[in-house]
Trimeric intracellular cation channel family protein (Bradyrhizobium zhanjiangense), 642 residues
Amino acid sequence: MWSLPPTDSVLHLLAFVALTAEGMTAALAAGRRSMDYVGVCLLACVTALGGGTLRDLFLGHYPLVWVANPIYLALPGGAALLTILIARLVHRLHLAFIVLDAIGLVVFTMIGCNVGWQMDASLPIVIVSGMVTGCAGGVLRDVLCNDVPLLFRSELYASVSVVTGLFYATAFGLNLNAELWTILTFVLGLSFRLLAVRYSWEMPKFVFTGDEKR
Amino acid sequence: MWSLPPTDSVLHLLAFVALTAEGMTAALAAGRRSMDYVGVCLLACVTALGGGTLRDLFLGHYPLVWVANPIYLALPGGAALLTILIARLVHRLHLAFIVLDAIGLVVFTMIGCNVGWQMDASLPIVIVSGMVTGCAGGVLRDVLCNDVPLLFRSELYASVSVVTGLFYATAFGLNLNAELWTILTFVLGLSFRLLAVRYSWEMPKFVFTGDEKR
Amino acid sequence: MWSLPPTDSVLHLLAFVALTAEGMTAALAAGRRSMDYVGVCLLACVTALGGGTLRDLFLGHYPLVWVANPIYLALPGGAALLTILIARLVHRLHLAFIVLDAIGLVVFTMIGCNVGWQMDASLPIVIVSGMVTGCAGGVLRDVLCNDVPLLFRSELYASVSVVTGLFYATAFGLNLNAELWTILTFVLGLSFRLLAVRYSWEMPKFVFTGDEKR
């Protein structure tokens, strides 16, 4: 995420929303496992920044953005502490959380594509860069919470990321108006995700019950 | 893996077999946890490419090979989709899978040693480089499936990798005929692994039942 | 860790103690899950060197220290094998282990701060660098053992690391006598950790029982 060209101030602003949203969803996951306050903040930072960190490691994109701007650590950490305070309200805010989480997914994906593009990566790697940025933080959160990652099990999470990335990346090739395309991609991705949640769209599952020996 | 010297075309070809084999074994593991199709493909890519990725991160060997050649992502992903289609046949192909998996282990180990050697690493790091390339993908697969990694629990998996690496690395020091040595190492490693599976060779286990407090 | 300025020979010596201690605690964790001898050694290396490795990846601090000095792999691996031999004595050595583990935490934290400082990182990143070096190895150990990381759940582990790092980093800003400050920090951090264990100090926990849907 981040390292945006100056014109993308809208995307930059949305990145702050996304970091906050990811921090809050991670805090709720931490609360379900009765982690202590420090653990809640750490899990929030790993969830919010883990995707971008992995992408930067894969692309050799140094310095990592949170190393260059430590304020990015404070944001999800602070959001996690806030979540502890307002946890009782949270179940009434269920819808708000779903929307925030969807914003996080779409915005991180777009930022990841941006970074890949700036690193002169090929189109498939631009898409992968977006997907890693958008989805890997949640995988790390689930692994640290000792769950099989939600990403692998259900919901159109990775799929939304791929579609968003493909649509967004097309703009790079077509030399279209960047800001218009950014807004269009954001609306498309967000709608796709919210419709998927609303109507419980799911990918078919692969169920295999052979013997456990490899 | 990969980044092979042009002469090692045999190793290069075997790498494709290994990527496919790892993708298929990962798909079966995903199917046992009822992951959806996207999750199956993602797990296959992580398993097949995770070892080489970790090795490249450890050695600072940029660009990562799947970033330079995204086709390496398509191979295990496609193999995973194929596995979904033919899953009903798979239990009849048990032996084929064991052999393919063993090929993956041995080939990835040799490729890892090659990369370490090309990076001017010392002998122990060449061996570790081979072991990480050969074994770490399976560890990531087991962590994402929420299992204690098989590597740590049983079978001569890491041991086969170390022996293969040691034997292979000797050639670097002795300046022997590279191609002959490649074939010899491959046959030795594969035989060792298959014998270990056939006769259920195992390392002794360390069982400690002290109190859980650290 | 490591890459110390030559004057810090005390810290260097303590690093060997810390690597050994982390290897031994990891071996006990491995024994509780009945891992085989190879798995015990691998888990010891990951636990002892994982924190420093992650820090080096985050900061782009190449070559990794265990790549440059493979002897760092032999130390926790050897300590793990030794632990298998003396496991029956270990429950009598409970206190010694707690002290060794605390030394590991404090020393790794200080070394991590040192490395961050040498990389010209900002103060928050120096602290994070210390915390990652001190704590991340234990997180990796718990993930590989299929546990929710202890770090997130209880005890003042991360907190000790942060306080130690803050105190230590103050010296960088104040230009104080480095060796005196090193010893002071070590005593402070160790005392804090041991008092926390002795009196079971804990952070408050965040318990959230909302629905599981994100």
User: Anything to note?
Assistant: The first helix of chain B runs from residue 9 to 32. Confidence is low (pLDDT under 50) at residues 1-7 of chain B.
